[in-house]
């Protein structure tokens, strides 16, 4: 559904993303992992339209994304969350969701989605009254309010404890089954990524060094050397 071909991005002499190509299928849950500075957030920013590639092409269902703004891409069905929280703090939870719903021209978000992320009894609260974990979940629900074809999540489990992370994983599995959209997930929690994702792409120094199932990734010598190291025993 989303196809990247030869995507690169340079900032001066720094090559943040180098010749990245992959295909994200409809309904797939794809993980994106790699060391700090590997280019993961840059790649998400390129897909969402916050950055413009230095070279390469991107298409969504065969339609070129070149020249489309972030807002236009959101209307085409590409939604995202951010590594640093970007909720509207003075708006209520419901108003935060409605902002995305109106922007995407979609109908009301099903109550089931709001309940799945534990926000049904918090709709009238201002977003800044929520716990950190609930604000993370609000960002995801707000993304779903756009009725996306692809929802990209940048460190969704960051700052969550083990119980919260497990609950988040269950909620995202529900999204895969019920919301009819693909998920593209960056996270440093390897157990979370390996449990959640169908396939995983690994970046190192801006380049794809491996792609495959969780089992293939945890046994790939390049990935173990560049990123997993001793952590492989915790997720194998």
Question: Which SSEs are present, and which pair or pack?
Answer:
Elements: E1 2-11, E2 14-24, E3 29-33, H1 40-48, E4 55-60, E5 63-64, H2 70-76, E6 78-80, H3 93-104, H4 111-116, H5 132-144, E7 150-154, H6 162-178, E8 182-186, H7 190-196, E9 199-204, E10 207-212, H8 214-218, H9 221-228, H10 232-235
Parallel strand pairs: 3-8, 3-9, 6-7, 7-8
Antiparallel strand pairs: 1-2, 1-4, 4-5, 9-10
Helix pairs in contact: 3-5
Description:
With 236 residues, the chain is α/β, with parallel strands linked by helices. The chain has one domain: Rossmann fold. The chain is 37% helix and 25% strand. It has ten helices and ten strands. The protein has helices at 40-48, 70-76, 93-104, 111-116, 132-144, 162-178, 190-196, 214-218, 221-228, 232-235, and strands at 2-11, 14-24, 29-33, 55-60, 63-64, 78-80, 150-154, 182-186, 199-204, 207-212. The strands form two sheets. Strands 6-7-8-3-9-10 form a six-stranded mixed beta sheet, with helices on both faces. Strands 2-1-4-5 form a four-stranded antiparallel beta sheet, with helices on one face. α3 (93-104) runs parallel beside α5. The longest helix is centred in the last third of the chain and has 17 residues, at 162-178. The radius of gyration is 17 Å and the shape is globular. It starts with a strand and ends with a helix. The model has no long low-confidence stretch (mean pLDDT 90).
């Amino acid at each position: 559904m989303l196809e990247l071909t030869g995507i690169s991005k340079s900032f001066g002499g720094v090559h943040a993303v180098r010749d990245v190509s992959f295909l994200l299928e409809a309904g797939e849950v794809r993980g994106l992992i790699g060391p700090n500075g590997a280019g993961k957030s840059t790649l998400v920013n390129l897909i969402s339209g916050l950055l413009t590639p230095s070279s390469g092409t991107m298409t969504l269902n065969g339609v070129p994304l070149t020249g489309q703004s972030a807002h236009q891409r959101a209307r085409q069905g590409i939604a995202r969350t951010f590594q640093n929280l970007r909720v509207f703090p003075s708006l209520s939870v419901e108003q935060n969701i409605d902002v995305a719903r109106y922007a995407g021209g979609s109908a009301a978000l099903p109550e089931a989605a709001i309940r799945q992320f534990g926000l049904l009894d918090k709709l009238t609260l201002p977003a800044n009254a929520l716990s950190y974990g609930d604000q993370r979940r609000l960002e995801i629900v707000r993304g779903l309010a756009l009725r996306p074809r692809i929802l990209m999540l940048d460190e969704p489990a960051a700052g969550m404890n083990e119980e919260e992370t497990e609950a988040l994983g269950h909620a995202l599995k529900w999204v895969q089954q019920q919301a009819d959209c693909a998920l593209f997930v960056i996270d440093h929690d390897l157990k979370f990524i390996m449990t959640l994702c169908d396939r995983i792409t690994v970046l190192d120094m801006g380049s794809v060094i491996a792609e495959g199932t969780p089992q293939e990734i945890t046994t790939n010598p390049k990935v173990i050397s560049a990123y997993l190291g001793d952590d492989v025993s915790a997720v194998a």
